[in-house]
Amino acid sequence: MSVGTDDIVKSPLPLGGNALTRIWAMVLRYWYLTRSSGPRILELAYWPTVQMSIWGFIQTFLAQQSSYFAQALGVLLGAVMLWDVLLRGQLGLSITFFEEVWSRNLGHLMVSPLRPIELIAALMTTSLIKTLIGLVPTSFLAMWFFGFNIYGIGLALVAFFFNLILFGWGVGLIVSGLVLRYGQGAESLAWALTFALAPLCGVYYPVSVLPEFLQVFSYVLPPAYIFEGMRNIVVEHRLDMSLLIKASLLNVTLISGAAALFYRFLRSAEVRGTLLQIGE
Questions:
Q1: Largest CA distance in the chain
Q2: Measuring CA to CA, which residue among 161, 144, 117, 149 is closest to residue 15?
Q3: In terms of C-beta density within 10 A (0-12 exposed, 13-18 middle, 19 or more buried), how is residue 209 classed?
Q4: At a CB cut-off of 8 Å and minimum separation 6, what does 239 contact?
Q5: Does residue 278 lie in a domain region?
Q6: Cβ–Cβ contacts within 10 Å for residue 162, how many?
Q7: Domain residues for 63?
Q8: 3-state secondary structure string, 110-172?
């Protein structure tokens, strides 16, 4: 009996009670892959530590030269560490997905009971684990070397963390979807897109320093509100809840649209039969 393409393409939503089992199986697969590779483990903490060290020494110098930075010790280090949450979250999802593409394993996964939403959940969970492995040790090094305790931000840090990693996941899903649609030539966007958005996110400076026509674009990016909120806490010792609410609403919209786009491109690749042939 012949099977049409509509019969092959699965629903984006999980069916049955085994969704969590399949998601956990994928997370274990990615964890075993990472655990078995020394370079992969080293990379998780290497870049966050390097960035923290460089900016920490820059901040130490500026603190001796500028009254602003003397009063706001931690602005740069806080920005660097929160930026790494976004960057590691996005790369953690994108690179994990790319490894399935590079190994030509994506087609095999999609003929298994695994649903697209379960694959997305597994990628996000793996990204979260990798981000925490990289950043938690770095946060303690920042305390040791520079006396900066990012946990001093309080419970707001949890909201900052999840908003930034949600944005990173949204960008990662968009990039992964573009690879499904246009091939591995789109992989460079995993690095280029996030860094291209950095100037608009106000990571190291307030959005108000940007030209007015650029500020319009900044205010549709959730990280702009998060970094502004971080500066308010470090400099003025106050939490502006309106900034968190705006960032959260924008993130919900972004992650929903990114997941829908990823599924659309995945479905298209299944129908065209290109899952095993994604190339340049």
A1: 78
A2: 117
A3: exposed
A4: 154, 156, 229, 232, 233
A5: no
A6: 17
A7: 11-272
A8: HCCCCCHHHHHHHHHHHHHHHHHHHHHHHHHHHHHHHCCCHHHHCCHHHHHHHHHHHHHHHHH
* Burial grade of 133 (CB within 10 A; 0-12, 13-18, 19 or more): middle
Specify the DSSP class assigned to residue 185: G
221 touches 201 (CB < 8 A): yes
Residue 6 lies in a domain: no
Q: How many domains does the chain have?
A: 1
Domain contains 2? no
Place of tokens 């996110």: 201
Q: If you search the block for the tokens 């509100």, which residue do you land on?
A: 225
Q: How far apart are CA 142 and CA 52, in angstroms?
A: 7
**Does residue 1 form part of some domain?**
no
pLDDT digit string (tens) for the chain, length 280 residues? 333 444 444 555 555 558 888 888 888 888 887 777 666 666 666 656 666 655 555 566 566 556 555 555 677 788 888 999 999 999 999 999 998 888 888 888 888 888 999 999 999 999 999 999 888 888 888 888 778 888 888 889 999 999 999 999 999 999 999 989 888 778 888 888 888 888 888 888 888 888 888 889 999 999 999 999 998 888 888 889 999 999 999 999 999 999 999 999 998 888 887 777 765 4
**Cα(237)–Cα(101) distance, rounded to whole angstroms?**
46
